[in-house]
Amino acid sequence: MQAVCSGHAKNTPEMKNTIKVERAKKNWTQADLAQRLGVSRQAVNAVETGKFVPSTVLALKMALAFGTTVDQLFQLEDTDGLVNV
Amino acid sequence: MENTLKNNRKRTLVSAIVWALSYMLFMFIVKKFEPPMGIGIIFTGILSLGFAWFLYNFIRELAHLDEVQRSIQLEAMAIAFCLSVLITMVLGILEMVLPLDNDNWNLQELVAFFFLSYAGGLLWARKKYA
């Protein structure tokens, strides 16, 4: 099982997200979202493109900004091998 | 937040430039005029204080970065540290086995290499998250 660590960057993302879709719905640019979250545009871009896995706090802030939930905004790419406890 | 970050970045940059210029000036004075030991020690103390000022501003800047920017800094530092250990180790071992010409290079020149390796690490890490 692969661990999902905050800040872990990979070429192939292990977590997909719907940030771009949510931004399009709100008609926000990356800079708009970054301003609302109090982070850099680079941070929004890195999370959106799957290069950076955000911390729980940032994921919660993003979900709050879009009026959705974290699990709707972020999903695991591959859940094979994960066991429900 | 953006303004605070910009101000901190400006302060860090200014302190780095002031320190670098005073370092180069000090090196020039030492090489050209060979001042007495007491003056040299005082200059070294002043340079150290200048660097401490830069370090203070740099740490303040880091505190205002977001998590991606902190990751970038962390990776840049990790690369710079490893490269610095590598060059120090290589030069240290070489010095033991073959006579290195101290007129052409010395420990002070390593300082520039440390900063260059940080700049290289920063470029690499920024590209990774761009």
Q: Uncertain regions of chain A: pLDDT < 50 for 5+ in a row?
A: 1-5
Shape of chain B: flat
**Which value, in Å, is the CA radius of gyration of chain A?**
13 Å
What is the percent of helical residues of chain A? 40-55%
Question: What percentage of residues of chain B falls in helices of 4 or more residues?
Answer: over 70%
The rounded Rg of chain B comes to 18 Å
Structural class of chain A, by secondary structure, is mainly alpha
Query: How many helices of chain B in DSSP terms?
Result: 4
Helix and strand run of chain A: EHHHHHE
SSE series of chain B: HHHH
Task: Write a compact overview of the structure shown.
Chain A is mostly helical. Helix content of chain A is 46%, strand content 7%.
Q: How would you characterize this protein structure?
A:
The complex is a heterodimer of chains A (85) and B (130). Chain A has helices at 19-26, 30-37, 41-48, 56-66, 70-73, and strands at 15-17, 74-76. In chain A, 21% of the residues are buried. In chain A, strands 1-2 form a two-stranded antiparallel sheet. Chain A is mostly helical. Chain A is globular and about 40 Å long. Chain B contains 4 helices and no strands. At the A-B interface, helix 3 of A face helix 3 of B.
Set down the secondary structure blueprint.
The complex is a heterodimer of chains A (85) and B (130).
Chain A: E1 15-17, H1 19-26, H2 30-37, H3 41-48, H4 56-66, H5 70-73, E2 74-76
Antiparallel strand pairs in A: 1-2
Chain B: H1 2-33, H2 37-63, H3 67-97, H4 107-129
Helix pairs in contact in B: 1-2, 3-4
Feature tags:
heterodimer; A: mainly alpha; 5 helices; disordered N terminus; B: mainly alpha
